[in-house]
Amino acid sequence: MTKPVVIVVGADKGGVGKTTVSRTLLDYFNTNNVQTRAFDTESPRGTLKRFHPEITEIVDMTTTPDQMKIFDTLNSGLSVTVIDARAGLLSPALASLRDIGFLDAARSGQITFAVFHILGSSIASLDEIAETSSFMTGAKYFLVKNFINDTQFFQWDESTYNSYFHRIKNATELTIPKLNQMAYEQVEVASVPFVNFVANKGRNEDAANHSFVLRGYVRHWLANVWREYDRINLTDLAGAKSVTRGGEK
């Protein structure tokens, strides 16, 4: 049986585009034929589920019954579980994973665990790195600079940033580039996965009438995002091999 893979995407700061990153991960795994399910922790109304309703369940990760829905079913045959942690939940979620013994299971190799920590541009976001570092033993830790919201990361002093970054052994940096604003907004309106928008499909996989120009912007952007995922061998994490090169069809 394939070893379960759990990926938590989150940040303690809001407005950094964590759900956008979760959506790109689900598109990437789906295109690479990796069985995936997702949990949206923006209970009771989730954003991720709007884009990936077939594979996403809304949960309240702070409650024991919903924690059981996620972690008691890791051997369900689906190799990757993506958890989109709502703003402010990353540190409490990691503490809960420690308390239920999940982090111990990851350290012992029973589960592959990865954290995509979406960074903001403020020093408070760097403080999050220090706070989460104690949970990262046995986990694959990705620090994600997400430019989707015009975030400017160069407000940080380089030496200050490095002092935080190097506290995490084997942390890996990722960059999510800026997507054309009108293209981003049209995908939001369409409420479809990025790959469906590029393929000119609607919510029910039917043919749509998305702009050729905006589809091109999304295709180019997604290709760049997926090159980052190829660079870190993300499909290897799930025990699969990449069958695509970026978002190009």
Question: Could you name the key traits of this structure?
Answer:
249 residues, alpha/beta, Rossmann fold, seven-stranded parallel sheet, 11 helices, 40% helix, globular
Walk me through the structure.
Helix 2 links the parallel strand 2 and strand 3. This protein has 11 helices and 7 strands. It is globular, with a radius of gyration of 17 Å. The chain has a domain of 172 residues: Rossmann fold. It is an alpha/beta fold and 249 residues long. Helices cover 40% and strands 16% of the residues. Helix 8 packs across helix 10. The longest helix has 20 residues. A 7-stranded parallel beta sheet has the order 3-2-4-1-5-6-7, sandwiched between helices. This is CobQ/CobB/MinD/ParA nucleotide binding domain-containing protein. InterPro entries: P-loop_NTPase.
Task: Give a quick rundown of the structure.
The protein is α/β, with parallel strands linked by helices and 249 residues long. It is built from 11 helices and 7 strands.
Task: List the SSEs and their pairings.
Blueprint: E1 5-10, H1 18-31, E2 36-40, H2 48-51, E3 56-58, H3 64-71, E4 80-84, H4 90-99, H5 102-107, E5 112-119, H6 123-132, E6 140-146, H7 158-165, E7 172-176, H8 181-190, H9 194-198, H10 212-231, H11 234-237
Parallel strand pairs: 1-4, 1-5, 2-3, 2-4, 5-6, 6-7
Helix pairs in contact: 8-10
